[in-house]
Amino acid sequence: MKTNWRLELALLFLIAAMFAAAILAWPNAPSDIPVHWNASGEVDRHGGKVEGLLGLPLMSLAIYLLMRFLPRIDPGRANYARFSGAYAAMRVGIQALLALIHAVVLAWISGRRIDVSQTAPLGVGALFVLLGAVLGKVRPNWFVGIRTPWTISSKRSWVRTHRLGGWLFMALGILFALTGAFRLGRFGPGILVAVVGVVLVLSVYSYLVWRADPEKQAPAGTQPADEE
To answer: ∠ CA(194), CA(177), CA(119), 5° rounding?
Structure first.
């Protein structure tokens, strides 16, 4: 897959900005920094400076490197060029969400109490909507997308499952966003049930499409080996 240097430089700039913000905040940061909030937006766990200030930038860098080089080791790497735009959107969305959370942490230690019960669901919801919008464009590979035993055994199952998954992901994103916009954190368990339901629906659907596909094939390495 051809390297899009505008994308790479933009992502690297965002990650560098996170590290720079952490370094600037370090001297005046408290020893205990909020690193987790409950559904009501209340801090329920603190960490030290390293975890609180550098944890998210380091995670962003690790995810950047992972997603940057996954296509090089994927046996299905030839397909990445066919969904390069979707893959780029996924990478940008994930990095943007991590940067948002890092900004919230920095705001808290500077005395600005951002409502996490509203901000986090809106951010997660936006990411799910973005993923849903591009999911149908993802083509068969071994690392990215909805990988069940049936989607990786049938191109028809892969394509149809990802199309359905796109709509369901966008629906989940809207639900997440609504819980944030209207501060409905108490419905968090219901959202979790919805996520589990989506996983089950997509798994069953991928199996049903696979079963009806006359061109399905067993994944490489799953056929019984010839006896010597």
So the answer is: 125
